[in-house]
TrEMBL record:
It comes from Anaerostipes hominis. PANTHER family: TRANS-ACONITATE 2-METHYLTRANSFERASE, TRANS-ACONITATE 2-METHYLTRANSFERASE-RELATED. Coiled coil: none annotated. Residues 42-134 form the Methyltransferase type domain. GO terms for biological process: methylation. It comes from the Bacteria. This is Class I SAM-dependent methyltransferase. Pfam families: Methyltransf_11. The lineage of its organism: Bacteria, Bacillati, Bacillota, Clostridia, Lachnospirales. InterPro entries: Methyltransf_11 (IPR013216), SAM-dependent_MTases_sf (IPR029063). Signal peptide: none annotated.
Length: 195
């Protein structure tokens, strides 16, 4: 009984640390995303739904979230019942062609096993003039190299690869996106692109 309590407490502490570490990434997307009433917004790797909940305060949007973790989707459904959450992968996305106005990804792109497939899926799912907003952890070139060669290949947390600003943009350029905005602020690498 005590062991289960301690395990649960440790998981909760890990979750709170992760929330704190990703807060600035979510805030960057919230600040930059321009939303209109009636927009369809999809948050990929939505976790507990916090980002969608905050974006829903900016306009009366139709909010959708997808995540591979069933427990995160259960939490999101409980916290934000006005949003629609489903368990699913980042690619293929289980949404119709040209069905979304906005797609967001916060601190999850480095977990995607095939980032080019994801970028292609964003192009397929977004409406004409739709936008994708991504906020990723920023690492200096040396730290990025060490993480990608010495840490992530042995990581059991789902980390695949962290990208430079240019590498991140190339995925979306190759998919056919235009009108890029990309910058680095503190620990956040931000990218937006338009279909």
């Amino acid at each position: 009984m005590i062991e289960n309590f301690l395990i649960g407490r440790q998981k909760n502490q890990n979750y709170l640390i992760k929330q704190w570490l990703t807060r600035s990434h979510k805030q960057e997307i919230i600040k930059k995303a321009v939303l209109r009433d009636g927009d369809n917004v999809l948050d990929v790797a939505c976790g507990n739904g916090y980002l969608l909940g905050e974006l829903s305060k900016k306009a009366r949007v139709n909010a959708f979230g997808v995540d591979i973790a069933e427990n995160m989707i259960a939490s999101a459904r409980e916290r934000y019942p006005a949003c629609t959450f489903t368990v699913g992968p980042c690619a293929p996305l289980g949404f119709e062609n040209e069905s979304m106005d906005v797609i967001t990804v916060s601190c999850a792109f480095h977990h995607f096993e095939n980032p080019q497939t994801f970028a292609d899926e964003c192009l397929r799912v977004l409406k004409v003039n739709g936008k994708v907003f991504i906020a990723e952890p920023f690492f200096s070139p040396l730290v990025r190299c060490l993480a990608n060669t010495l840490v992530f290949p042995f990581s059991k947390k789902g980390d695949v690869r962290v990208y430079s600003q240019r590498e991140l943009q190339l995925f979306f350029e190759s998919a056919g996106f235009t009108e890029f905005e990309s910058y680095i602020t503190d620990t956040v690498l931000f990218l937006s692109a338009e279909k």
